[in-house]
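Listing S7. Sequence submitted for prediction.
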Amino acid sequence: MEEQPQFERVDIDEKLRSSYLSYAMSVITARALPDVRDGLKPVQRRILYAMDVMGIRSDQPTRKSARIVGEVLGKYHPHGDTAVYDAMVRMAQDFSMRYPLVEGQGNFGSIDGDSQAAMRYTEARLSKLGEQMLTDLHKDTVDMIDNFDGSLQEPTVLTGMLPCLLLNGVGGIAVGMATNIPPHNLSELVDAISYIIDHYDKLDDITLDHLMKFIQGPDFPTGGSILGTEGIRQAYATGKGRIIVRARAHVEDLGSNRTAIIITELPYLVNKSTLVERIATLVREGSLEGIADLRDETDRTGIRVVIELKRNVEAVEVLQLLLKKTQMQTTFGANMLALVDGEPQVLSLKRILVHYIQHRQEVIRRRSEYELAHARERAHVLEGLLIALDNLDEVIHTIRHSQNADTALTNLCRKFKLTEIQARAILDMQLRRLAALERLKIEQEYKELQSRIKELEKLLASPKAIRGVIRDDLNQLKADYGDARRTSIVDGVSNENLSLDDLVADEDYCVSLSRDGGLLAVPLEQYEKSVQSRKRYPDMAAEAGDPLFIMQQINSRETVYFFTNKGRALTLQGHQLPINRIQTGKLVRLEDDEHVVAIDHTESTSAEIFVSLLTRNGKVKRLEMEQMQGIPSSGESIIRLSAGDALVGAFLTKGDEDLMVVTAGGKAIRFTEDSVRPQGKSGGGIKAISLVEDDIVIAATIINDKQTLILGTATGFGRRTSAQEFSTQGRGGVGLNSVDTAKSELTGPITTAIAVDDAPDLMLGTRGGKISRIAFTDIPSAARGSWGRIVTRTRSGAIFDLDPKDDALTHIVPLYGIAAAEPSSTKKTTAEPSKPKKTTATPKPTKKSPDTPEVSEETGPQKRTRRTVQRKPPRRKS
């Protein structure tokens, strides 16, 4: 008889409810939401773990993305290959992740929305920061579970030395809920976590205000500006908040009453190509008037979208419409939802940081227990080996008279009271371990293990010590990978009250200019951190063959003036300065035989500020600052130069300062600037100093009695003298002897002169491109009419080699804000840029002097003491 099918009556409503709930929980816990401990979704965690197992680390060659995706699919993540590849690509995009965890090679997409190349074409490996998410994973630090088919094990969470949930942020849509956490700056997170650890005993007393002293707000990889802190505070306090992000742009003058809006940074996750298309559409529809041309000039140095305006169109009005009708201003809806013990919870900033600390405590505790167990096991074995070495003859006799290995094992355990593990180690010991040196190695290893065991036991007995390890690990990450903020936070400004400065962040930069025109701006905060950690930026404009020429501190909202040897002035806005090394001629339009001799900066065009100019033939000229208005980046002549003359110095003055002019022949004259009547741009200046024979002006500087004048000659002689020794004279005289002119045949002509405050370190540069950093006291102090010792010859106390026949000292640049250089007599140094100070550029020397022996009026180098970091001089504002 045929068996009848069995049916079961079910409640369809209850069945759908339970099935959908199971599906929803699967999506929530196993796909869409990150874990609060390591900040990763399951697919991201599995990708990183698979790459670690495959050995594709930062010091290894990249592997095909298809191979990585196949490894993840086949072993850990039974879903579509597109989902896995897209997740890996996002972890490699520097415009999506603040700190990429994967290093990609090939086409991994762009900010224009271009899709990545197929996985068969691209390659990838773990980044150095990505490796930090996997440290100590093999030391039983996290729980392991079976993979989907039970054939392998995978971690439930990564060890996560990085606070990745806040560091890179995350976005995900689950069933009935979504998460959207913004990225943050590593240095700020480390400081906040360190503060919590230091006050862990009073955890309940830590408020949001305490944490926001360290964490200013989100730090997006694409930069931009956040308007106000209200949305940030709300998100940090409740887990939900609306953060307004605005693009960063500035206005450039094109001449003929025409301007252009330049967009250089975009809000997070905004597609640049879509933005440009949207602007073009608005122009075609007539919703956006006043735009003459629109083009995308983005290259590898950064984003640059140019919006040229029609003649006489106000840029502010166009900007207001752009912010209102395009994605130049967006709202980031923060929703800090993450899994806590498998349960989705909306978390405040403090709770996220505390959960991270607790996770790291557990990881370090388990790691320490693992290392302690292994140390004890190894020490136990070594104890047996030491017993055997102490009773070597008896041990050998026992083994030789045993019938087999098992009998020998038993006899050793009984006779010497050894454990089976120790006895087996003795039987497995090689004969070479019997040598005297090998015995010493065993004893040394045993002592080290005993010390390590005590350290681990002490660590495990103290939760406070464990938290100290967490803090130390994070501070090391900060020193290695910390950087300056990219996103600025400004007071909330409505579009109706918008000004051009509202789109420009108020930031200070350390700006350096090399002799050959290399220009670089580094955020001052980042620069100061590099100084504190004693690291040197190799991309600063100070390299062998192209030494540093000028270093200053400039604000992003200031106007920067470039003065050239041809008497022209060119302008840029502070926020237009490059953060990557670039030739000045690519920023400002220079002629083939033209070079920058000085730069200066100010926010004001007040008549109370003047531009003072000095030329090679001894002319001086002053312009009122109002004369500098409207000078474009293409440049404009501001002084009429006679044939053979050239500009050698230029600086902004306040109207009541003293000017110092120094000639190659050793003459110097100091006079008040108000003795020079202001002229227009077409004026040729008046006499500053009466030159004799073939003498020329080589340097000019602002000076006061509190400063020190440093002189250097072509053959490398250097001397510093108090400015008080140079009395103020009338303009146009022959000046005083700044050196002992009787020794000019030995020292060569003066090639550089600067006035400095305090006692900064100095960077010396030569015509041949050699550079060296020395301490201020390495330059000997001497009276006005005398000379010091050589500072660049290969002798006792030398800095670097200088051949006067082929090379010459050309300039000395003061380096502020850095610890003293190593003594020149013991170490040859390389220039290290430091916090800037106003300097005066000097031209190359026009003549060389024969080689000379050392001439000294002092008895060797002066004794030097270490200095603390110098604070920067105040920035000039009107």
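Caption to Listing S7: primary sequence and predicted structure tokens for the chain studied. The chain is about 30% helix and 25% strand. Confidence is low (pLDDT under 50) at residues 534-542, 795-799, 818-878.
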